[in-house]
Amino acid sequence: MSYSTVVKTELCRIRPESDCCALAEAYGLLLYSRLLSEGHDTYATETKGIADLIGETMASVCGVYADVITLPKSGRNGCKYMVKIPNSEQKKLICMRFAEAGGGILDKECCVAAFLRGVFIVCGTVTEPSRDYHLEFLAGSERRCDILADTLSRAGIRGHKLQRGDRWLLYIKGADDIISLLKKMGSVYSVQSIETTKNVRDFRNNANRLVNCDQANIDRTLSASQQQCAAIRRLIEKKGYAGIPPELREIARLRLENPEMTLRDLSENLSEPITRSGVNHRLKKLMELAENQ
Ligand SMILES: [Zn+2]
Question: Which domains does the chain have, with CATH numbers?
Answer without folding.
Answer: 11-187 (3.10.28.10), 208-292 (no CATH)
